[in-house]
Amino acid sequence: MFRDTLTVYKKEIKSILKDKSVLFMCVLLPFLFMFIEGKIMSSMNVSEEGKTYDAYVVNAPEEMKDGLKVLGFSDEAVDHDQCIQDIKDKKTDMLLVFPEDFVISSGNGATVSDIEMYYNSSNTDSLLLQNALSVYFDSFRPVVFTVNANTANTYDLGDEDYQAKSLVASLVPSLLIMTIAYGIMALASNIIAGDKESYFLNTVLITPVSRTSVALGKALAVMTAAAISSVSAFVGLSFLMKDFQKMLGESAMSYSMTDYFFVLVVILSVTFALVGLILVISTLAKTARSAQTLTVIPIMILFLGSFLSSNASLETAVKSFGFKNCLIPMWNATYLTKNILLTGFTSKEMLTTCGINVAFGVCCLILISKLFNNEKIVNQ
Fold first, then answer.
1. Which of 198, 181, 192 is nearest to 291 (CA)?
2. H or E, element range at 350
3. pLDDT at 358 over 90
4. Rounded Cα gap, residues 336 and 246, in angstroms
5. Strand partners, 118
6. Bridge partners (DSSP) listed for residue 55
7. What pTM was computed for the model?
8. Among the residues of 249-346, which ranges form H helices?
């Protein structure tokens, strides 16, 4: 049986290597998806430092001129009414008007000067400038008391990098699962259902090769392609992490090579389980289209579970399950990957997660073999 399985496996691998579209989906797409995702996220995190605004100031006092210039204000003469209309139309970001007799109050009950600040809260730049200006004005107001003024002390007693790591840990597992799943979904759902629909499977199953060998050969070929897809996604992840470092700072992204290695191991284990499930669906489906449609369901459930668990209330519920999360096939990989990237993990969690996923994948292979030995799966 081993020789027959190997023969079918080689035949399917050659077929995969000849199909350029399959190679693109399995080899290049996972890497490109992760790489491009990182570049997109980096571009969305453009620093506001040195940002220029279309903003104007009238009657700026001497003590504020330099500061307002740094913020991006121009003292160029403008038409008051036209400038306000331009702010409404989002052509201008802000108009700041100081009274002629402006003075900074000492806080002793004297009449205070009123500054007119015209801005548009529906204009992102205008709102950003309004926030920056509010902070700037606060520095001129009378001081009643201070909070945490001693910079030599550390007042935040939590993990300074926790928020950054939490963001990464929430995004990475779902991105990896989605990338690998959609890269391999078409191949895995078509390799059996497609042959069945085209009646090619009828010919295969009447050959001297055992049906179990056919089933295992096809399944192992897809799992090989899926493993390559996982490695491709992992390589793309390394570039994604570099972009995260630029966004969040290198100190917040201080992961070791050991952490990355364990992430790869978890990825490979969940890929084995996920592909096994997709192949079962492909074996049960009558057509390639129905196989692809049904395959989307478990993938979306897994992806949405990973995405929604980043919500604070759901995250608390997930944590309350503790080690039990490691007993749920495929979901356990999401749970453990987050732990690796955020809070750490135990060897028990790692061994259980990988063992459960591998066992689930093996069970899927056994089920596929049994379905192949059932003549009802052959189209008449």
1. 192
2. helix 347-372
3. yes
4. 25
5. 95
6. 73, 94
7. 0.69
8. 257-284, 288-308, 312-321, 331-341
